[in-house]
Design brief:
Elements (H helix, E strand, L loop, with lengths): L1 H39 L1 H7 L6 H14 L2 H4 L3 H14 L8 E6 L2 E6 L1 H11 L2 E10 L3 E5 L5 E5 L9 E10 L4 E7 H9 L8 H4 L1 H14 L6 H8 L2 H4 L9 E3 L4 H8 L10 E3 L13 H16 L13 H5 L1 H14 L16 H18 L1
Antiparallel strand pairs: 1-2, 3-6, 4-5, 6-7, 8-9
Helix pairs in contact: 1-3, 2-5, 15-16
Length: 375
């Protein structure tokens, strides 16, 4: 029996040793293919990046991130890797594990802006002087008080293991001299984590401290003055929160939009006597409808405009003949028109929210370009 067990163990070791070179070869080939793919996309990367980040440096940082985590190559969809890299470039951040990170999530590569990157963008926005977000551990010295003389005092424990995370807080120094604060207990953070289908895997496990910081920052951002691009950055990784029930069904029975109410007044039929509509824009952390009827009405306006076009979802009213054939130009024009009509960046058309990242980026470019022209 002992000899047979030894033979079996020997065969398993030999199999593992044979598999290791194959895995290394596959990873090496994956790195080569990915670098070639990034170089082919260099014009797109150059258009997305801000002037202060050379595209060659950006590609080097992406390759370093992949070498540090080969699961991104061997366990994830390659197309999602390129999409996430482009998203990082559009945000003007490096996926270096400090400003942001490329993380595996449900077989896809996801782009996760990190607190350092958000602080960098916040300072550049002109609305916020500084934004500090930290976690508190069991052995840290921590005091806070609310009211007229609110304060937060935090002295981290540095003499060994500081213990588990017990809270997270956010302090924002505003341009007008004011100071805004937000605190979340571990209980509150765990409630957000528990509501996610990915609570037992992915970023909530591999990057818990960062997810805790992001959670309190996202809650704090609701009361802070934020430009549209900074707000988009804070919300850009909603999918990592994967709020259970918030995106489970694309069709839900809930409070109807303005367009749905108008259909009911006009006597339009509904299914089984109920109004079943696409879920309106909502906050991934709380599940609440963002901006109330403002967003619902603005989305209805966009959908009404789209419905009158010759090419559904691709051609805005009055588009040129060239624009009819170019969905990127269409999206850019629609973004500029949305801004001109006084809509918010959250009014991004529903058809651009999932799987049409290039058109989403073009819509935001048009929206922000119009904003700059107005300034």
């Amino acid at each position: 029996m002992a000899k047979e067990a030894a033979k079996t163990a020997g065969r398993e070791v030999a199999t593992q040793q044979e598999a290791q070179p194959l895995a290394r070869n596959a990873a090496s080939q994956g790195l080569i293919d990915t670098k070639d793919g990034l170089e082919k996309r260099m014009p797109e990367i150059m258009r997305a990046l801000p002037p202060h980040i050379p595209p060659e440096r950006f590609v080097r940082v992406v390759m370093t991130a992949l070498q540090s985590n080969l699961d991104l190559l061997t366990q994830c969809d390659r197309a999602s890797l390129f999409r996430s890299a482009i998203k990082a470039a559009q945000d003007g951040l490096l996926p270096d594990g400090r400003e942001g990170a490329l993380v595996p999530f449900k077989g896809q590569v996801a782009w996760m802006p990190m607190i350092l990157g958000i602080r960098k963008k916040a300072r550049n926005s002109g609305e916020i002087l500084d934004w500090d977000v930290q976690v508190v551990r069991e052995k840290d010295e921590f005091e806070y008080e609310l009211g007229d003389q609110a304060f937060i005092r935090h002295k981290p424990y540095l003499a060994g293991n500081p213990g588990k995370v017990i809270a997270a807080y956010s302090i924002c120094h505003l341009k007008d001299g004011g100071i805004s604060r937000e605190i979340m207990s571990r209980h509150d953070i765990d409630k957000v984590k528990a509501s996610s289908r990915s609570s037992s895997k992915g970023p909530w496990v591999d990057w818990f401290d960062e997810m805790a910081r992001k959670t309190v920052a996202r809650r704090h951002s609701k009361s802070l003055p934020m430009s549209s691009d900074l707000d988009d950055l804070v919300r850009s990784d909603d999918h990592l929160y994967d709020r259970e029930g918030a995106e489970a069904d694309t069709k839900q029975t809930r409070r109807p939009t303005l367009a749905s109410r108008m259909n009911m007044l006009a006597g339009a039929p509904t299914d089984h006597g109920q109004t079943t509509v696409e879920a309106p824009p909502h906050d991934a952390e709380t599940g609440e409808i963002a901006e109330g009827d403002k967003i619902e009405e603005s989305r209805s306006d966009v959908q009404t405009e789209t419905a009158s076009d010759d090419i559904p979802g691709d051609k805005p009213t009055g588009a040129s003949e060239v624009t009819k054939l170019d969905p990127i130009a269409v999206a850019r024009e629609r973004g500029a028109k949305a801004k001109a009509n006084g809509q918010l960046a959250r009014a991004l058309p529903a058809e651009y929210r999932d799987g049409r990242d290039d058109e989403k980026a073009a819509w935001l470019d048009g929206f922000n370009a119009h904003e700059k022209q107005e300034g």
